[in-house]
Amino acid sequence: MSTPHNEANLGDIAKTVIMPGDPLRAKYISENFLEDSILVNNVRGICAYTGLYKGKKLTIMASGMGIPSMAIYSYELYKFYNVDNIIRIGSCGAYKRELKLFDIVLSKGAYSESNYALTFNNDNCHFASSSTELNKKIQKTAVNLKNNIYYGNTVCLDCFDPYMPNINQFLSRLPSDLDPYAGEMEAFSLFYNANYFGKKASCLMSIVDSKFIKEIATIEERQTGLKNMITLALESSLVI
Fold first, then answer.
1. Which pLDDT tens digit goes with each residue over 166-190?
2. Which residues pair with 59 in a beta bridge?
3. pTM confidence score
4. Which residues are catalytic?
5. Domain extents in the chain
6. N or C end of the chain, less CB within 10 A?
7. What would the pLDDT profile of 59-115 be if each residue is shown by its tens digit?
8. 62 dihedral zone (left: phi>0; alpha: psi -120 to 50; beta)
9. What fold is seen in the domain 16-237?
10. Phi then psi for 179, rounded to 5 degrees?
11. Where are the beta strands (DSSP E) in the chain?
C-alpha cells in the first residue's frame, strides 16, 4: 500500500516513530543510532528509515516544517500505517529566562492560533494535549539518563518566531494561564491528530534560540548537535 505522500508498504513502519522535522536529521539518526536501517520512504524528500535500536524495531521519519506538513504525515502514520506512538524531536525557541541553549523541553500541551482543527474537523480548538502516559515514560527515562528536562506547555506557531517584528505583542495575546516554556511549529497538529485517532504523541525539543540571549545555534548544530534529546527519545522508545 501507499499514500499520496508515503511509498512505504504496510509493515515497513514500526509502531513507534521518532519524528524530527529535518530529513537530514532523520538520516543522521538512522546512520548513527540504528542497526540494519532501510529507507522505506523518500517521497518529496521526506525520508523514513526503519531499523533496530538495541533490538527494537523503530522508524525515524521526517515531518517537514510547520503544522500542515506534520498534520499530513502524522495523519497518514496513525490512519494507514497503524502507528501507535509518535515522539516529535525538534528545535525550539525559549520563552523563559532560565532556559539555555540545548536545554530540553517536554511539551505538556501545545497552544496555537492556527485554525488547523477548525479546517480539518470543524473544531474551534486551539490547545491540544500530549500523551500523559508517554510523557511519564520519557520523564522516567530522563531521570535514568541523568538528563534534566523542563516540562510544561508550549506554543505552536505559523511562523519562525525570531522573524516576528514584535514577539512581545504576540506573547501578550496568549491565554494568561498558559505560561509557555518555548515555541515551535509542529506539535499542535501532531497532538490533535493523536487525540483524534486515540493514539499517543509527545514532543521533545532542544533550545536553539531565546528571546533572552543573543546566541543562536548554527545550522550544523541544529542538524547533528542535539544528541542528548535524540538519545532520550531513542531510549524512551524502548519502554513504550
1. 999 999 999 999 999 999 999 999 9
2. 17, 50
3. 0.95
4. 209
5. 16-237
6. N
7. 999 999 999 999 999 999 999 999 999 999 999 999 999 999 899 999 999 999 999
8. beta
9. Rossmann fold (3.40.50)
10. 50, 60
11. 16-20, 35-41, 48-53, 56-61, 85-94, 104-112, 127-129, 149-156, 182-184, 200-210
